[in-house]
Amino acid sequence: MSAPPPSTGLPGTIITQPPPPTTTRESRIATHSHIKGLGLADDGTAMESSQGFVGQRSAREALGLHLSLLKQGRYSGRPLLLVGPPGTGKTALAIALGQELGQRVPFCPLVASEVFSGEVKKTEVLSSCFRRAIGLRIKETKEVYEGEVTELTPSEAENPLSGYGKTISHVIVGLKTVKGTKQLRLDPSVYEAIQKERVVVGDVIYIEANTGAVKRVGRSDAYASEYDLEAEEYVPLPKGDVHKRKELVQDVTLHDLDMANARPQGGQDIMSVMGQLVKGGRTEVTDKLRQEINKVVDKYIEQGVAELVPGVLFIDEVHMLDMECFTYLNRALESPMSPYVVFASNRGVCTIRGTEYDGAMGEGIRSPHGIPVDLLDRCMIVKTEPYSRNEIRTVLETRCRVESINVAPAALDKLADEGEASSLRYALQLLTPAAILCKTAGRTEVTVEDVSELGDLFLDTKRSTGILKELDAAAKKY
Ligand SMILES: Nc1ncnc2c1ncn2[C@@H]1O[C@H](COP(=O)(O)OP(=O)(O)OP(=O)(O)O)[C@@H](O)[C@H]1O
Ligand SMILES: [Mg+2]
């Protein structure tokens, strides 16, 4: 069973949100759709082609090592820097790392330019991202009534306030487990919660005894063959008594807690903090508030109620950050509550942003990857290599599978040649238009002619630059 989502904090009627619908619909195909993980064997070595990843073995192994460090969760403050030419899979590597982490460990991707905003301070954006990347797993033992609903009868009464309409005076709920059954007479507010969860007879639910929150676990598997087609999750009949103590696990991030507490009417205990998560409305999250939350979190960790789950913060195109951000990062990385940070950059030696106008400096401070040397010194640097023709061909093949495109081997060879001559991205981008061309021509397989035709229609960077240079030279002649 997945952890119950946070409850809303209306006094008296704490209602759990309905779980997000599980859809099996195919999602849109994006640039990195074929990447499913790092593709490492059990001993940590990178397989030549696995989980959508091709080649780039040493970088993948380095990330795998970082991942095992991360899974131990004991070390912090060792940022990883991915460097390499454009299109060599730095972003893809970080995405694969995020996928390896699983659902419960936070992964916060950020592009450095997102830091610049007219409304929010740069360091504020960074620190909220840092906190988004640190999870907290809260374990709680709660008294609950759990079972399959056998009866759901609301009792109506005359509305005492007006002559019109009726109100619910109470609701009778019958719950059944393997061991026994129980009939509960419940407050109308619990009936509201039951309605919100869309509970019907035959569902397995649990009701928290002290808050009245209702959570629908799924449909009892006794009803499994009811329909031919449906998207229902079937669960077995709960074991044990209807009334029991149950361990519940909730995953939140420190940022969630910050946001919940930025609201003025936040309560003191952690559950009321959690209770407000889904409500909107935003006031400023100050440093003081963060410190307070850290204190509460520390206390809960000490008591063994909660566990810190450091996740990954991924900052892409890190050369876009400026000097102030880098200085902030130096400090933030050393704090004990720091997530694992992964940077990526495709720049060589360039000017550090924010130092251009330092009067005497002229062009500013130049540094490798546009990162100050002191931060660079703290990083573990991983290099990505340009791809060989064969690797490009395998990536193209993987992509064809994801996009369900049928390409003739000769056409694939030609695409791989194009990729080698210009870039992997260019070759990947030609795939979909090629599929359209061949469909229009009434064929099912992309041929060499399709690829050649596309070569005339779409220019790659080199040819486009060449044309510009020619134009420039021609203009200078006259
Ligand atoms: N080793 C690989 N295996 C499979 N696909 C890859 C691999 N490397 C890159 N790709 C794919 O190639 C494309 C370009 O890669 P990516 O965007 O990761 O490059 P990058 O290094 O981040 O480039 P930039 O520096 O321009 O941001 C993406 O669609 C990516 O999924
Ligand atoms: Mg990238």
TrEMBL record:
<feature type="domain" description="AAA+ ATPase">
    <location>
        <begin position="76"/>
        <end position="377"/>
    </location>
</feature>
<dbReference type="Pfam" id="PF17856">
    <property type="entry name" value="TIP49_C"/>
</dbReference>
<keyword id="KW-0547">Nucleotide-binding</keyword>
<keyword id="KW-0539">Nucleus</keyword>
<keyword id="KW-0234">DNA repair</keyword>
<comment type="function">
    <text>DNA helicase participates in several chromatin remodeling complexes, including the SWR1 and the INO80 complexes.</text>
</comment>
<comment type="similarity">
    <text>Belongs to the RuvB family.</text>
</comment>
<dbReference type="InterPro" id="IPR027417">
    <property type="entry name" value="P-loop_NTPase"/>
</dbReference>
<dbReference type="InterPro" id="IPR041048">
    <property type="entry name" value="RuvB-like_C"/>
</dbReference>
<keyword id="KW-0378">Hydrolase</keyword>
<dbReference type="Pfam" id="PF06068">
    <property type="entry name" value="TIP49"/>
</dbReference>
<dbReference type="InterPro" id="IPR010339">
    <property type="entry name" value="TIP49_P-loop"/>
</dbReference>
<dbReference type="GO" id="GO:0031011">
    <property type="term" value="C:Ino80 complex"/>
</dbReference>
<keyword id="KW-0067">ATP-binding</keyword>
<protein>
    <recommendedName>
        <fullName>RuvB-like helicase</fullName>
        <ecNumber>3.6.4.12</ecNumber>
    </recommendedName>
</protein>
<keyword id="KW-0805">Transcription regulation</keyword>
<keyword id="KW-0804">Transcription</keyword>
<dbReference type="GO" id="GO:0000812">
    <property type="term" value="C:Swr1 complex"/>
</dbReference>
<dbReference type="InterPro" id="IPR003593">
    <property type="entry name" value="AAA+_ATPase"/>
</dbReference>
<dbReference type="GO" id="GO:0006325">
    <property type="term" value="P:chromatin organization"/>
</dbReference>
<keyword id="KW-0156">Chromatin regulator</keyword>
<dbReference type="InterPro" id="IPR027238">
    <property type="entry name" value="RuvB-like"/>
</dbReference>
<feature type="region of interest" description="Disordered">
    <location>
        <begin position="1"/>
        <end position="30"/>
    </location>
</feature>
<dbReference type="GO" id="GO:0003678">
    <property type="term" value="F:DNA helicase activity"/>
</dbReference>
<dbReference type="GO" id="GO:0016887">
    <property type="term" value="F:ATP hydrolysis activity"/>
</dbReference>
<dbReference type="GO" id="GO:0005524">
    <property type="term" value="F:ATP binding"/>
</dbReference>
<dbReference type="GO" id="GO:0006281">
    <property type="term" value="P:DNA repair"/>
</dbReference>
<comment type="function">
    <text>DNA helicase which participates in several chromatin remodeling complexes, including the SWR1 and the INO80 complexes. The SWR1 complex mediates the ATP-dependent exchange of histone H2A for the H2A variant HZT1 leading to transcriptional regulation of selected genes by chromatin remodeling. The INO80 complex remodels chromatin by shifting nucleosomes and is involved in DNA repair. Also involved in pre-rRNA processing.</text>
</comment>
<keyword id="KW-0227">DNA damage</keyword>
<keyword id="KW-0010">Activator</keyword>
<keyword id="KW-0347">Helicase</keyword>
<dbReference type="InterPro" id="IPR042487">
    <property type="entry name" value="RuvBL1/2_DNA/RNA_bd_dom"/>
</dbReference>
